[in-house]
Write a structure and sequence with these properties.
4-stranded antiparallel sheet, globular, 2 domains, 32% helix, 349 residues, 6-stranded mixed sheet, binds magnesium ion, alpha/beta, Rossmann fold, single chain, binds adenosine-5'-triphosphate
């Protein structure tokens, strides 16, 4: 199938003034009913083309305060990268209002570029054939970074991201994890106030992931850099973000603390009990036995219920030897959330 893609309204007028007030803005990133609709033309036969609209971002509103570190998650095609592209000014919204540091990104992309950093895990902003250090030198000039500041930022990134041995290596020879660290450094040389990361840990091994996470945490706590992080690795979110936004089909489904997802996802905790001997499944509704192995039984119960009450009830009626409570797995909660949505969609179509 031949799909011709046509982006709507991407003209960028650099340097346009729109009277926005700069500086101390409480809500550093502001989206008010932002939309992005793509016109997609699909070939349906010889000379026949069908026009279709894809509503990639559908009336999304949220604000991010200066210094926050927010996770932005959702299934494939949810609209995450499209949102980030609008935040950087690469794409122009089809509707709604969007401001970053008081600036309209698509109208003043160049002015905003000095204040933001962006890392797309899927592609590099570095010069492929040049040694890593040459890309940094080019950025030094492009962004007109004062010499002392450039040196200081470079030294810091080289140290924390362990780039020392890589500076003279052409980018095309770097491994994925090395290149990603190189890209993160490149995004930070000009001291951006906000850093957008679109899947910065994609394809990285455990050690590289830990390095990147440690670096981001420090950047956020020490420098107060605002971070918006898109990822499919929920451990990134668990380890870094106190707030998470879930987007699906272009719509914001959840915005709140990670722990709150458990309630939305109707997640369950598990009480594991060891009985004195093998017994029929324990009867303790609303908890239900999900597994029995000899004298050990697993009882699932709503995460919102008190474990103490359940334990007391089981202990009163059954010969209990030992027990433990397992917290819900965030991966499972999110998988259920995505799946629930897919099922709902199936039911409609
Ligand atoms: N340039 C474009 N032209 C037409 N449609 C597009 C374009 N960019 C994205 N889309 C569509 O918009 C929707 C959202 O895409 P987007 O890249 O924002 O998703 P995502 O949440 O980043 O997904 P992933 O997790 O796979 O990276 C998808 O349906 C996609 O096909
Ligand atoms: Mg994406």
């Amino acid at each position: 199938m031949d799909v011709a893609v046509d982006e709507t309204g991407d003209a960028v007028t650099d340097g346009a003034v729109d009277g926005a007030v700069d500086g101390a803005v409480d809500a550093f990133i502001e989206l008010d009913r932002v939309e992005k609709v793509f016109d997609v033309r699909k070939k349906t036969g010889f000379l026949k083309r069908e026009r279709r609209q894809v509503r990639a971002v559908d009336s999304i509103s949220f604000t991010v305060a200066r210094g926050e570190m927010v996770g932005y998650i959702g299934p494939n095609g949810a609209g995450k990268s499209t949102t980030i592209k609008m935040l950087t000014g690469i794409l122009t919204p089809s509707g709604g209002r969007l401001r970053v540091a008081g600036i309209d990104p698509s109208r003043e992309r160049t002015r905003l570029a000095h204040r933001i950093g962006v890392v797309f895990g899927q592609r590099t902003t570095l010069w492929w054939d040049l040694p890593l250090i040459d890309s940094y030198k080019l950025m030094h000039r492009m962004y007109r970074i004062p010499d002392a500041r450039y040196r200081e930022n470079l030294d810091r990134c080289v140290e924390l991201l362990e780039l020392g041995d890589l500076l003279d290596v052409p980018v095309r020879q770097l491994s994925l994890g090395q290149r990603m660290r190189g890209d993160i450094a490149a995004a930070l040389l000009h001291d951006p106030e906000v850093l957008y990361l679109d899947e910065p840990t994609i394809g990285l091994d455990v050690i590289s992931k830990a390095k990147v996470r440690g670096f981001l945490r420090e950047l956020n706590t020490e420098r107060g850099t605002t971070v918006l992080l898109t990822t499919h690795d929920l451990q990134d979110i668990e380890q870094l973000c106190s707030r998470v936004m879930v987007i699906d089909h272009g719509r914001l489904m959840y915005d709140g603390p990670l722990a709150g997802l458990h309630e939305v996802g109707e997640s369950e905790r598990t009480l594991v009990v060891d009985l004195e001997r093998e017994l029929p499944p324990i009867d303790a509704a609303p908890a239900r036995v999900v597994r029995v192995e000899g004298p050990r039984q697993w009882l699932a119960f709503p995460a919102s219920e008190s474990a103490a009450a359940l334990v007391a009830r089981v202990a009163a009626e059954y010969p209990l030897v030992d027990l433990s409570v397992r917290e819900p797995d965030i991966e499972a909660v999110i998988a259920k959330m995505y799946a629930g949505d897919a099922e709902a969609e199936k039911a409609v179509s």
